[in-house]
Amino acid sequence: MMSSRRSFIRDSVSAGTIAAVKPLACQPAAAAFLASALKPDDGVIRLNSNENAYGPSNKVIAAISAALSRSNRYPSMEYPNLIEQIASFHRVKPEQVLLGCGSTEILRVAACAFLGSGKQLIHASPTYGAIVTYADAVGSEGIPVPLTRGLAHDLDGMLHRVNASTTLVYVCNPNNPTASLTPRHDLETFITKLPASAFVLIDEAYHHYVGTSGYASFIDRPTEDGRVIVCRTFSAIYGLAGLRVGYAISSPKVIQQMRRFLTEDNINSIARQAVSAALEDSDGLHEAMERNANDRQEFFNSAMARGQKGIDSHANFVFINSFSPADRVIEHFRSHNILIGPRFREMDTFIRISLGRPEEMRQFWHAWDMLPGIKGKMAH
């Protein structure tokens, strides 16, 4: 069962709980997935997968509805139009765009194209772990480097671990699960110091939520370095996690190298129409960005009212110290019909909460107030 991008078992990779599953290298179903036994309509509040709780815009919903009548046709004829639309949107050439079944497929394809036996992946810890799973599937070694005290990527530490075997470096920015940023200038300097054999995959899944002048996307402000690959998803801000569409932008040579490992007909016809409408709906995009900013601020207001201070968030989720073992806290919320993010062994008392609708967050805080021993514990 294919889960949404942010409910993928990558968090269990960080938690050290993933099973030693090694499927055939570079096959589409090349990873283990956790399936929830809970049904979508069971009344459970889902604050666990960094989804857009409000769903797609009305214009996108209308496009999805209109596309249903064409679901009997294969979508391959529509690929070039969507690629051209994304290229035009980002002011790049069509040959610089690669479509994926969610950005998790982009990560799998990158692992197949640039990793393999005897090659090495450098990544932060904790971070989104799908790429680690795919690296393992193709026989590569993943080298975790702890985040800095400020929860940015430790670029000096990562550079120190680079050697002749390093062929891929993964940077999730903003980072999942911490929702923290690594400064653009630091990343640019870091990339120039990497050996020519090392490619850099920058995951900008939460790009639209940043809202700070100190940040610049590597798509919006590209470098001249052809080794840089940037991936995006329509799962988060656009509310299309269930339709599974992501893409990468890089140099034509790199895209061609990755394209060989794509799943054939990997974008369905309904998703193709939804994405096209989403790219054209600038009003819907800005409404979603503003709504998330308001919901995020309300979360911090509620936390401060309880003497808590979450880590500054640049995404649609928050990482906060519960001052209790995360497993116990997760189970406490589950007993109140609320799902939150998984345990991260590197920061064992922190929990990740995806922002929900106001009524869902009121129930979250009600359950929080019943956490054993939470009163009187103040964040630093």
Helix/strand-derived category reads alpha/beta
**Percent strand:** 5-15%
| Weakly predicted, low-confidence segments | 1-24, 28-38
Number of helices: 12
Mean pLDDT: 88
Radius of gyration: 20 Å
How much helical structure, as a percent, in the residues? 25-40%
Summarize the structure.
The chain is of the alpha/beta class and 380 residues long. The chain is built from 12 helices and 11 strands.
What does this entry look like structurally?
The chain is an alpha/beta fold and 380 residues long. 34% of the residues lie in helices and 14% in strands. The radius of gyration is 20 Å and the shape is globular. The N terminus is likely disordered.
Primary descriptors:
alpha/beta; two-stranded parallel ribbon; seven-stranded mixed β-sheet
